[in-house]
Design goal:
This protein is mainly α. The protein contains 11 helices and no strands. The protein has one domain: Regulator of G-protein Signalling 4, domain 2 (Orthogonal Bundle). The protein is elongated and about 65 Å long.
C-alpha cells in the first residue's frame, strides 16, 4: 500500500475479544442461561433451517456470554477472524452513521466544517485499520492486533478474489487522492470531496463483505456450533439444527 495512508491518524478500536471475555462472569454454557437466550424450546422446521440459523446467529451476537462461547468455538475452528471482523465492521458503520454536525445556535459554520473534516479523517483511519492494521503500526507506535482485508494481513479473511481485487483497487485510488491533496499543499487531515465520496464507497464494500461473512457464519459455523457437546448437552433441539 502507498505511504500516503501513513498521514492518517490511528483511532483506537474496542477489543471485542476482551468484551466477550468479560462476559465469562456468567457461565455461557449454563443450562438456564443458554435456554433462555436461544429460545431452544422453539422447534426447527427443515425448510426454514437457513432462517433459523440466521436468527440464532443474531441471538449469539446479541448475547455477550453466548458470543464468548461462539468465539471459543470459532477459535478452535481457526476462523475467529470472521466474528472479529463482523464486530469491528459494526463499530465502523456506527461511527460512519454518527452525525458529524456539531451545530448549535451559537456555533459558527466554520466550526461545523472542521468537525466534519475531523470526523471523516477519523473514519478514514478506522477504514485503513480494518483493511490492514500493519500499515499504521510503525507510524503511530501502537501495534494493532487485527486487520482483515489486505493480502497477507494478520487476520486475512477468506473472501472472493474479485471482491478483494475491487477493494485493493479502491484503496489504491484513495491513496492516490490523498497524495494529490498533500502535493497541492493540503494538510494531513484534509478530506477532499473526492476522498469523502471514496470513503462512502469503501463503506459499501465493507458492508458487502460483512454480509457475506455473516451468511458464512450462519450457514457453516452455527450448525456446527449447535452440535458441539457443550451446546447439545444443554438442549436436544439445538443438536438437531
Amino acid at each position: 500500500m502507498n505511504d500516503s495512508a501513513s498521514s492518517v491518524k490511528a483511532t483506537p478500536r474496542t477489543s471485542h475479544s476482551a468484551d466477550d471475555a468479560s462476559a465469562k462472569g456468567t457461565p455461557p454454557g449454563s443450562r438456564a442461561g443458554v435456554k433462555e437466550t436461544l429460545r431452544i424450546d422453539m422447534p426447527l422446521a427443515n425448510d426454514h433451517a437457513k432462517d433459523s440459523h440466521t436468527a440464532r446467529l443474531k441471538q449469539i451476537m446479541d448475547e455477550p456470554a453466548l458470543r464468548s462461547l461462539f468465539r471459543e468455538f470459532l477459535r478452535d475452528m481457526f476462523c475467529e477472524e470472521n466474528l472479529s471482523f463482523w464486530l469491528d465492521c459494526q463499530d465502523f458503520k456506527k461511527k460512519f452513521n454518527t452525525t458529524s454536525s456539531t451545530h448549535t445556535p451559537g456555533t459558527a459554520a466554520r466550526n461545523g466544517v472542521q468537525a466534519m473534516e475531523k470526523h471523516q479523517s477519523e473514519l478514514l483511519a478506522m477504514a485503513y485499520v480494518v483493511y490492514n492494521s500493519e500499515l499504521l503500526c510503525d507510524v503511530f507506535e501502537c501495534p494493532l492486533s487485527t486487520a482483515y482485508l489486505a493480502p497477507a494481513s494478520p487476520a486475512e479473511l477468506n473472501i472472493e478474489h474479485s471482491v478483494r481485487a475491487e477493494l485493493i483497487h479502491h484503496v489504491n485510488a484513495m491513496n492516490a487522492e490523498k497524495e494529490a491533496i498533500l502535493a497541492k499543499g493540503g494538510n494531513e487531515g484534509q478530506i477532499s470531496p473526492t476522498l469523502a465520496t471514496q470513503l462512502q464507497t469503501l463503506v459499501r464494500l465493507y458492508e458487502k463483505i460483512q454480509s457475506y461473512i455473516y451468511r458464512l457464519m450462519a450457514t457453516d459455523s452455527v450448525p456446527k456450533f449447535c452440535k458441539t457437546e457443550r451446546v447439545s448437552r444443554t438442549s436436544s433441539s439445538w443438536s438437531r439444527c
